[in-house]
Amino acid sequence: MTRHRLDPARRRQRRIGWGVVATALVLYLGVGWWLSAHDLIFPDAMSRVANGYYTMRSRDPHLAAIGFVWNPLPSLAVIPLLLLTPIWPTLASKAVAGCLVSVACGAVTVGLMHRLLALLGSHGPARILLTAAFALHPLVLLGATTGASEAMLLLTCAFMAVRLALWLGDPKPWLLVQVGVGAGVAYLVRYEALAAGAAIAVLVAGASWWRSRGRKGGDGAIGIACLDVALVIAPIAAAFGLWALASKIVVGSWLETFTSQYGNSAQVGAFRASIDGIVGTGGGAQLAYVSEQLLRTAPLAIPLTIIALVVAWRRREPALLAPVFVFGSILLFQNLAFLRGMSFGWIRFQIAAVPLAILTAGYLVAAVGSGARGRRARRALAVGLVAAVVLVLPLAWVTEADPRFGREEVLAREVAGGDQYGMEAAVARDIKSMGLGEGAVITDVAYSFPIILASQEPKVFTITTDRDFEDRLADPGGASVLYALVSAPDSAPADAVDKAYPGMWENGAGVATLAREWKDGRGLTWRLYRFNDA
């Protein structure tokens, strides 16, 4: 039996592809290491690591401790790495486990973008430069090196776009199955995947019907389209239903992100005043804000997408529709969520515009370079397109440093400058030195998670994911809870301890006495109160 071998050209392309992934991996590892060493850690990324940590190292370890407010896959992915925390503590304390996962996701995404550019006709130096422009864009680079869930979201979206583009050129059902599985996995990463799933269903329905209408009768074409749509919808519908059912069974709510006091809706509401202070009030101010975000991070995304769609229509090349529908739906969802008051409007929510700009530029470069007439002018136009995409990178990096737009990034620098994580590590050390028993300190880990991650004895804490948290909070004396660890209401607006004992932060609420206080360089303060009847 002869063994099938790839032709030399395909072997070369495969080696180049793996080289792109390896280069991105080394780059992202280096940047991630530097950021972690300087305490430039995104709290959202660290909280995802903490959710995985509670399932193993808390006083009450169980899988449901991962929580149901946020989609589970980013936290599940770090659990194998967190097994190594006894020999590498910074996997937890500095959220390095999350960084390693996002680095791997980011590197593979760069490789998939490189492949997508080839599927859209881009080759040679233009393809390499556009891939590099994607990898070095601040939204992509920071998403891949800080542990943010954007890296995993981009990975699933890029995978869906590749398989969908292949299906548009060759309608094999197996490709649609892969698209559907990608959408289901994407939903376990972020809620925005629902928008991508809906957009893909519309595209598949239209493309399938269009292909089948001439071969069979109208009813047959509709039937084939319905079957194709079912292949892509079934996995994400199953993921949505099973995750909602698990949430209902465990915590009594179908969608915790909307009903929980820690959910996205509650958080946005709690910080509405500060958001409006930066963005402005009213729909007009919000629209202007997200528009400026987009124009400063990926200014070519929308115009290049419109032009590329017109060119693709005229050339009858449907492959471009795959990334436009996948990434475009994510971008639309995120901006509509902000305009409806359901989002913080972080600049990283514009990340889907970056692959849109890169891929449409790559498609147009291939289109203008394919004609025989005016070869010199076409080449100049292609070079100009690539140069334009590359030259907007400095603007994006400047925008990341702008306090009005890069709010998370600026906050991360301020937190590092104020040594917040050093102070919280000191809280963990000081509590350990007190020699307390298991569950002796009660705290709300929606806010104190950096302290728990830094602690060498996390079981000394009774935390909100413990199944007996509410009982122990209601009767701390009877449950051998000696202390309460709380932060100020302006930084912990939904703290469960402070809500159970109004005034706990200010004066102990008449049930506890101040024992210790810690403060960082920015004024963030943690207080340890001892219950009077303990």
Short description:
Helix content is 66%, strand content 5%.
Task: Report on the architecture of this protein.
This protein has helices at residues 8-37, 43-57, 73-82, 90-93, 96-119, 124-136, 138-145, 150-169, 173-187, 193-212, 218-251, 256-259, 264-270, 272-279, 283-297, 301-315, 321-339, 353-368, 375-391, 393-400, 407-417, 420-433, 445-454, 469-474, 496-500, 504-507, and strands at 441-443, 461-463, 483-487, 512-519, 525-531. With 534 residues, the chain is mainly alpha-helical. A 5-stranded mixed β-sheet has the order 2-1-3-5-4. Helix 2 packs across helix 3 (73-82), helix 6 (124-136) runs parallel beside helix 19 (375-391) and helix 18 (353-368) packs antiparallel against helix 19. The longest helix is centred in the middle third of the chain and has 34 residues, at 218-251. The chain is elongated. The mean pLDDT is 93.
Total strand count, please? 5
Number of helices: 26
Q: Report the C-alpha radius of gyration, rounded.
A: 25 Å
Overall mean pLDDT score? 93
- Helix/strand/pairing class, anyone? mainly alpha
Termini gap? 78 Å
The major sheet is characterized as: 5 strands, mixed
Shape descriptor reads: elongated
Give the strand content.
Answer: under 5%
Q: Into which percent range does the helicity of residues fall?
A: 55-70%
Major β-sheet strand ordering: 2-1-3-5-4
Low-confidence sequence ranges: none
